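Model it.
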Amino acid sequence: MFHVPLRCERLMIAGFFFCLDSFLSLLTIMPARILMTIWRVLKTRQFRRPNAAELSDFGCFVVLAFGVITLQLTDISLIYHIIRGQGTVKLYVVYNVLEIFDKLCQSFGEDVLQVLFNSAEGLANCSTDNLTFELLRFIFDAAIAVVAFIVHSFILLAQAITLSTCIIAHNNALMALLVSNNFAEIKSNVFKRLSKENLQNLVYYDIVERFHITAFILFVLAQNILEAEGPWFESFLTNALLVYFCEVFIDLIKHSFLAKFNEIKPAAYSEFLEDLCKQTLNEKPEERRQDLTFIPLAPACVVIRVLTPIYSNLLPFGPLLWRLFWILIWSSLTYIMLTVCKILVGVSLRGLATWYLVRRREKKQHID
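Modeled.
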């Protein structure tokens, strides 16, 4: 049991940065590829049918754009006051219900996005006779994806608002939420019989959940920047660390007892990390294992929705063209910053993955 926490947390940290790399890729690489496609069409003045990758990028961009627009039209203050009007008991009930729907949306979103990519491939490779049918199929699948991820984005936003309500409240609502939510998670998982593959799925879900919590904390930070009065940063930092500490502590307890009750050796978590490193380097193992599937569309919608008011406050007053100029400046600086972060995270992740795989091979050769 006591060997599990270190290996489990090492896997969690690697998985978190894998999710961060995918998140930054969505905000940097995908827009760059779309702009390059548009530039090529404008430069050559010859329209050709896009390939499957270009259609997939366009479909994801449409989903992201509609998700951000929908959340922009959402009145956060109204949702906040509705949730704040509930009792402490109802707050963690609401959060647990939203968490269940988040799991359902994650599973459904994977299938929806895969269907959209298949439609993009069919449209790119179809004959001229089937072009109309494949185009309508692609549009229909894109519409389903838009609806699915708008719902998922709204659920994540509601979770973030609920967490923000508990942090701002002064009646121990945050502690009640953490205790009820985390110990309900232990109760629902620890005493179940799990196979090694199911345990790997559970670890991957915990990684995605930790990334979502980071997005929620970012939401709370943005709300404090916009609306808090007086000294607030120390209180925010204390509550954020409390949330992270409880999440890490509960995950370590849960996986330690899961490994004990299901007689799974701690080396399984090293194998999971090895699979994740191979996935990072696009090395498919001989025996097909499960991949960490993280779709950053819904968290990206929430983060963009949260940061937009902060950028709006930074814009100077003046004529419309002057404001548009500063919007372009701030957008360019943000994109450059995200690109630098993407490069640093991607290079570091691939370097550490290569180092770990070499270390694992040397260890196996030494044992043999």
